[in-house]
Amino acid sequence: MRRKDLADKEGAARASAREPRQARGRERREQLLDAAAALIAESGLAAVSMHAAAERAGASIGSVYHFFRDKGQMLDALAERHDAELQPAFDRVLQRSDAEWAALSPAEVVEQLIGWAIRYFVRHPDALATLDLHDQTMHAEFRAVIDRVMRAKLGEELGPQAATTLDAVVLGTLLFTREQDPRSRDVVVAALPEMMATYLIALEAKRKRAKR
Questions:
Q1: Which CATH architecture best describes the domain 4-72?
Q2: What distance, in Å, lies between the first and last C-alpha atoms of the chain?
Q3: What are the DNA-binding region positions (predicted)?
Q4: What residues does each domain of the chain span?
Q5: DSSP state of 15
């Protein structure tokens, strides 16, 4: 889920951000990351700079450079922080069995498979800005989970069709929300779970008719 430049040679060669050992240092580092996140939420990625983060956090510029070599390293640290927060939830999705997914209602499937992630990204615009939504490894893993769940829920004929559609809708929505103002973004996100659940209900009905 991390930014694409982490996979580039330049990003791989970049030293890791300094991890403070003392509680006070860890608190200061988190304050600087919070400041960068707030700047992104308010004005976008271009608003972030070492000086802007220092000013927003009420810290000296020297304090920022103590923890981060440059803006890129600070953004990498933001992405890593979101990785750490998202992974446990994604692990729970992976651990649910096919039988458990099949027993859920369409609304429950949407919520437990997708809804939580979309709401997280909307609450954290800096995650949308710093995580690489086009990362092929991440996308392939998520796509495989959707495919498995849809096959368990809808069978081998309709499952792949539903998986392709939901995958496109989720990625498209995340990319859309990254570019929109909060009012437009919130309207779309609020309507999305019900729309996807309605789509799954229709496919379930189609599957039942085909079995008659």
A1: Orthogonal Bundle (1.10)
A2: 43
A3: 49-68
A4: 4-72, 96-211
A5: P
